[in-house]
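Input for the complex:
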Amino acid sequence: MKLEMRGLTRRFGSFTANDHIDLTIEPGEIHCLLGENGAGKSTLMNMLYGLLEPTEGEILVDGEPADFDTPGDAIAAGIGMVHQHFMLVPVFTVAENVMLGREQTRGLGILDRGKAAELVRELSTRYKLAVDPTALVENLPVGVQQRVEIIKALANEAKVLILDEPTAVLTPQEIDELMDIMRALKKQGTSIVFITHKLREVKAVGDKITVIRRGKVVGTASPDAPEAELAEMMVGRAVNLTVGKEPPKVGKPVLEVNGVTVVDDRGTTVVRDVSFDARGGEVLGIAGVQGNGQTELIKSLLGIIRPDAGKVLLEGQDISRHGPKDSLEAGIGYIPEDRAHDGYVSSFSVRENLVLDLYRRNDFSRGAALKLDAIEKNAKARIEEFDIRTENMNSSLASLSGGNQQKVVVAREFSRPLKVLIASQPTRGVDVGSIEFIHKRIIEERDRGTAVIIVSTELDEIYALSDRIAVMYDGRIVGTVTPDIPREQIGLLMAGAHDGHETQAHETQGGAA
Amino acid sequence: MSTTATATAAPETQPTRIRERSDVHRQIRLVVTFAIATALCIFFALAVDDPNVRYILGERVTKEFQPKDLNGSWVAWLAVAVSAVALVLAAVNRFPRGAAGVVLGVLVGLMFYLGFLMWVYADQGEGFTAAITNPIPGTIRIATPLVLGALAGVLCERAGVINIAIEGQFLAGAFFAAIAASLAFQPYTGLLGGILAGVGIAALLGVFALRYQVNQVVLGVVLVALASGLTSFLLGQIPGDPDVKQYFNEPPTLPQLRIPGLADIPVVGAALFDQTVLVYLMYLSVALVTFLLYQTRWGLRVRSVGEHPKAADTVGIKVNRTRWQAVLLGGVFAGLGGAYYTVGSTGAFDRDVSAGTGFIALAAVIMGRWHPLGATAAAVFFGFMLNLQTQISFVDKLPSELLGAVPYLATIIAVAGFVGRVRPPAADGEPYVKS
Amino acid sequence: MSDVSVQEPAKSPPPERKGEAREEGNRWAAYLPTIKTTVAAVVLALLIGALLIIFSTPRVIESLKYFFSYPWDFFKFAGIAVWDGYTALVKGSVGSWNSIERTLERAAPLICAGLGVSLAFRSGLFNIGAQGQMLAGAIAAGYVGFHFDFPPGLHLLLAAVAAIAAGAVWGGIAGWLKAATGAHEVISTIMLNYVARFLMIYLLGKELFQRPNSNDRLSPPPAESATFPQVFGVHTGVLLAFLAALGVWWLLERSTTGFEMRAVGANPSAAATAGMHVQRTYFLAMALAGALAGLAAVMQILGQQDSLTENVAGTVGFDAITVALLGRATTLGPVLGGLLFGALSSGGLAMQAAAGVPPELAQVLQALIVLFVAAPALVRGVLRVKAEGDGGTVLAKGWGG
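Predicted:
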C-alpha cells in the first residue's frame, strides 16, 4: 500500500503545527520521520490516523484520495498506529485490549473471549511477540505493553504501521528486538513510519529519512548521512551534542542513602534495599528503564512517600522521616519527572509557579501575607535569567511550551542555595535549545559544589552529564559504573543481566559506601 | 578510576520481611471494628432485665403469622461469642481473606443485628408488646428504587459520566409516572411515564455533560434543583378540585403479583416473590446490567470509554456516542426507580417525594465500587438500614429522631472505614475532547 | 463524522484558565465575556420562565381552546401574565426600599454560604454540605441566643462565635474524613446534611430547645440582646456578609494559606511535591467553608431572628452551591450571585402575591440560570451572542482521587 500526503496543513488558531507537508510512504519501506520535540511529527500522524482533521491538504491511499474522519476509517484503510502514550485500557486484559473495537462475538454482541485470546496467541507466535492474552495490562512491564500495542495494530491487518517514539521506554536490548521486529514486518510487506528524534535509531533501521522542523519538511536524507548533518537539519543550526564540562572536583558525601526499601499501595516492593551516596561537586546518574523503581526511590528521598525501611542522611542528619516541606527546606532541590503532574500548577501564572515551593520563605511572605512585590521582582529576574519565553509573568503555565514550562521549574529550584539537586528526566519532551540550556545549568550547579543526582531513561543524557552512573533494575541498584564503559554493558545492566556480567560491572562490595 | 562501590544486597539476606502497610491498616481496621462490635454485644446481653421477646416470621400479625415467644439471652450471648471470635482472629491477623472473610463478616454483622434486636425489644414491660418482624419484605421494597438508581449511576459512571442527578431522575420519574398512570387509569403506563422522565433528565445530563462539557458534579447538583423545582411547580399547577385532580395525580398503584411456588418458600418466599412488577424488573435489571457490562461488546466499549476514552477512540469507537447510550439507558433504570415512589407505593406525587434517596443510591454506587453487583449489595444494605429504622421506631428504647440519622451515619462509616480511597473509572467525569 | 467538534489548540491556554492570566490593566476586559454570557444566561432563563408562566395561567390556557378562531386573546393574555409576573418580580426585589431590605436580608446568608462553597471549590473540594453546616450553626446560635442571658453585644458575639464554630466543626468532620480516610467529600457532606437535620429534629423535641407551652418542633426566638441591631430596617449583620467576602478574597489572593489552597485545588500532587500539606489543607478548607455556612446561619437566626425549626435553613444551603457556581472561581462572584438569588427569592414571593405565580418558579429560574452560565457555548448558540472568549467554571473535575 502506498500512502501519500499532499500539502497537509494543520492550524490551531494562529499557530501552524503542520505547514504544507508532502510525504510519500512506499510499500514495504521503513520511513523515518525525524524531528525534535514539538516539531509537529505527532500532529502529522494524528491527521493520518483520523484523530485530527487537516486544515488543508489531502491524503492519498494507492493514489486514491482518502478521507479519514475517525481512526476507524484509518484502520479500515489499513493504517495501524502504536502511540507514544500507549492506548491501552489498564484494567482490561491483553485479549480485551486487542479485541476492543473489532470484537469477536458469539452473535448478539456477546463477547467471545476465547477466540480473541486465540488470535493474540497466533499473532504472538507468528511475529515472535511473547504476551499472555489473559494478563491484565496494568500488571505488565512497559516493554510488554508495547508488544500488545503492536499486536493490536497487526490484528487489524495494518499495512502501514506508524510507530510514534517507540523506543523511549525500552532498554537498548529491547530496542534491538524492536528493530528486528520492524525488519521482519517489512519483509512481510508492511510499511513502517518510524517517528523519532534519536539519530542512532534512524541510521540503524531506516530506508528513507524525512526531517521535520517547526511544522515543515526541511529535507530528506539517506540513512548513511553523518549524524551531525542530520542533527543540523533537525535543529536548524549546528548542534553540539556533548556537554562541555571540566572533570569534577568531588567533595564529601552529602546525601547518604542506606538500605531504602519502598512497598507500594498494591503491596509490591518497588525499591529494594537501595544504598548509595551522592557527593558534592559530582553528578550521579541513575540509569534504568522506566518503571524499575527510580520514581519511587526519588520520591522516598524527598519524603513524598515514606520509605518502609532504610535511612536517608543529609549531611549526616536522618531525613527519612521528613515530609517534602522539611526536605526542601533542608536544601534539596527537586525537578520531578512528570512536570505537569508534580512540577507546576498549570492554571497558575508563571509568577506564582516561580515561588510554588518558596512562598513560605521570609523573602516572599511576612506572617500569613504574601509579599506580592517580592514575588513579582523574583519573577522578572528569573524570566530574564532563564530566558523563559512567555507573554508576561501573569500568563498561565498552560500557555507555555514544554521547554519553557520546564525552565520555570528549573528556575524555581535553582533560585535558592542547594546542597543536593535531584533532577528526574530533566529534559523529557523539551526542545534542543532548552536541553542545552538546562544541561549547562546543571553542570554549573555541580561546579558550585552541589551534589547532583540525575535520573534519566535516556542513556545519551546519562552519558552527557554523569560523573558516575548507577543502574537500576527491578527496584535494585545492579551496578555502579563510570561513563567510560560501553553502552552495551550498561544496556545489559538495565536489562537485569547483571548476574552474568559482574566482572564488567565491577561490583566490589555490598552495603554502604 | 573505572570502578566504584556498588550496593547490591540480595533479597534473601534481607533481615526482616517488610510488612505491607495496607495489611497493617486492614488489621487495625478489623480489630477496631470487632472490638466495638464485641463491646456493644456484651452491653446488649447485660443491659436487659427481662430477656423475653416476641417475634413473627411475617411482616405483620396475621392469621398465618402469630407472634411467638423467645428467650433472647442465648441469642445475645451467641452474638457476643461470634464477634469475640472474629476479634481474636483479627488480633492475631488470621482473619480470613476472600469469600471466607466475607462470609464471616456477614455472619458477625447478622449476629450483631440479632443481639441488637434482642436488646431493643426486651424489657417492653406491661401492655402492648411490639414483636420483632421479618425485615426482608420492607428491605426489598425500600431497596428497589435504590438498586435501580444505583444501576443508573453505575452505567453512567462506567462510561465516564458522573451522575449526581439520580435524585432528580427519581423526582421526575415519580412525577411523570403519577401523571401517566392517572391519565390512563392504569399503573403500568406509569412505568412508561417514569422511564420517559428518567431518560429526559438523562438527556439533559447528556447534552450539558457531553455536548457542552459542563462540570459534571456541578451539573448533577443543578439538575436535582431543576427537577425538584419543576416537579414542585407543576404539582402546584394541578388544581385541587378532585374531579380534575384524579386525571393528574391520583394514580392507581401497581398490584402485587404472586409468583406461584417461589412465593411459598418459608420466610423469604413472600418477601421476594410476592411483590409488584417493579421489584421483579429490579431483579432483572441487576442481571441485565451486569451481563451487558461484562459479557457484551457494548459493555466492553462502555467500560473502555470510561477508563481510557482516547484508547477507545483510536480503535474507532465513537466515545461520545457510547457515552450517550450508557447515560440514556441509565435514565431508563433511574426513571423506573422514580416510578416506585408513586405508582410503586403510595400513589400520589408529593413535593420531594423521594426524600433524598437518590443521593443514597449515589453512595451505593461508590460503596459498590462502580460494579453493578457491588452497588446492588450496598443499596440492599441501605434498604435494610432504613427499614430497621422504621421498625424499631415502634419501640421506645432509642429516640426515633436520632434513629433516622443512622442510615446516613452508617454510610459515612462505611465510606470512611471500609471503602476509603476507592478507584473510580479512570476517566470518570472528564469530558472527552480530541486533542 | 467526528465525535467532538470542539478542538483545542495545543499551544493556547485552555479557555477555563483565562481567569488566571489577567493583568491588572485588562482585568475588567477579561471579565467582559463572562459578564456577557451571564447576562445572556439570565435572559434565556427568564424566557423559559416566561413560557412556564404562560402555560400555568388559567386564562391563557382557556384562550388556547379557541386559539384558531381568536388567536389574539392568547397572545394578549400571555403577554399580560408574563408582564404581571415579571414586574412583580422586579418590584418585589428592588422596587422599593422595603423590597431592597428584603433582598439584602435574603442575600446575606446566600452570600456567606456561597462563599463557603466557593472556598472549598477553590481548594478542589465539592462541598455539598452547606445545608448541614448551616443547621449545626443554627443550633449553636439558637441555643446561645435564647438560653443564656448576657449583656447585649457580648451575647451577640458569643452566639455568633458559637454558630461559626459549630459550622466549622460540621464542615471539618467532612474535611477530616477526607484527609484521614479518603472518604469522598461529596458523599460525606450529603450524609452529614441528613444527620444535622435529624439532630435538629431530635433537639427540637427536647425541653432544652422546644418553645415552652408548645408541641410544635419550634424553639423560642433568640433574645433581643443576641440579635443584630437594625439600621434603616436592615439588620447590620448584612455588613458582615460583605466583610466575609473581603476576608475570603484576602485569604485566597493575598495569603500563604490561600496560595496553598488554590495550589492544592488546582493540582494536589504538585502542591504536595512543593511541600504543602494537602490533607491539612483539605481539612482547613472544609472547616472554613463550614464556618462561613455557620455565619450564614448567624444571618438567619441572629439577623432575621428566626426561631429554630427543622426547615430553618430553607434551601439556602443548596442554593449556596448554585450561587458559588454562578460566581465561578472569583470572590466577587458569590456576592453578585447571592444578591441575584436574594432578589429572585424576595421577588418570587411578590410574584406569588401579586400575580399568582408559584414561588417554585424562582427555584426553576435559579437552576436554569446556573445551567446556562455553566454552558456558555449553548447560550451563545441560542442567542447568537458573539463572545471572543469565555470563562468556564474553574473547578476540580471528576471524583478527584
